[in-house]
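@here heads up, posting the sequence + SMILES for the pyridoxal-5'-phosphate run so it's all in one place. Ping me if the SMILES looks off, I pulled it from an old spreadsheet.
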Amino acid sequence: MKPIDSVLALVRPEILALTPYSSARKESSGGRVWLDANENPLTPHAGAPRLNRYPDPQPPELIARLASLYGVVPDRVLVTRGSDEGIDLLLRAFCRAGQDSIVITPPTYGMYAVAAGIQGAAVRSAPLERDQDFALDVGAVLAAVDASVKLVFLCSPNNPTGQLLACDSVRHVVDALAGRAIVVIDEAYGEFASEPSFAGELAERPNLVVLRTLSKAFGLAGARVGATLATPELIAVLKKIIAPYPIPTPVANAALEALAPHAIAAARRSALGLVEQRRRLAAGLAELPAVRRVWPSDANFLLVEVTDSARVMSVARAAGLILRDRSKDVPNTVRITVGSPEETAFALETLARA
Ligand SMILES: Cc1ncc(COP(=O)(O)O)c(C=O)c1O
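bot reply: prediction finished. Complex structure tokens:
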């Protein structure tokens, strides 16, 4: 079997057989008078940015800019409503309800298990090694994979712990599962990390999928723009099941602006600034009596073990400082996002009182 056939063999057969909805904007291009999509030409929105018209399902210019940003060819890019939609589409494409499973490595991002629950897929856990700074337990991941497992989600840098997974361990898992399962590497926080993206390895590894987002380093969380990067055949499968018009016109325009060369340079500078704030926040926290431990982070947040998370949360809330209690993942921990210099100072001042 060719490597790509072994990837397609993992897709739900009914999705492979599905005839997707063919929207008006998919079928038509060019022309002068558009009477094909039951739109309304007689509206105040008929001028720029033409909100009376359906948007392009996958705007080519946006795809081209995302492809160039992530260093892949455009055929390997699907633009989605945040990377959360990419997670959901993967679950729906690969997992049959009541039959198939995914593997996650807790503590990790909650949406993998939620998307699995919605789809009726079982969730198997291969916990990160807590006493090794949350390192990937390669043996546990591989042991969790049986014939029912279609997707393995690895989050790097991981939310909520902040660390990158060791690249060699990730590569080992991807290669060991070639032909058996898809490995999804969620790089939502990749711009804050010290290692390059796995996007550069997609061409050699057809069972690899990389998730990226404009929500974090590009500051567009409110616009909802994510990218799923994968082998072109897999992108074609996901295009069969994504909603007909997932990216609203104002969102595509905002993303195009954020991906202009000067804006990319500004986003990179701002990511470097946040990495500097992360260092300052970590150093300040380590001095506080309420703090027991600050884990190293390659993301724009820190996981912090405190003496009493309920007390820290309540002191913070009383001061108007909103943090995230992660004690259900790791006992007595709070997750603190790296903010502006003023916000960092305020957080340190407030937590000094806890
Ligand atoms: C690891 C991880 N993946 C994905 C997401 C979802 O991001 P998006 O805004 O692109 O949907 C988040 C959001 O916090 C996250 O932490």
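MO: The chain has 13 helices and eleven strands.
MO: One more: The two ends are 60 Å apart (CA to CA).
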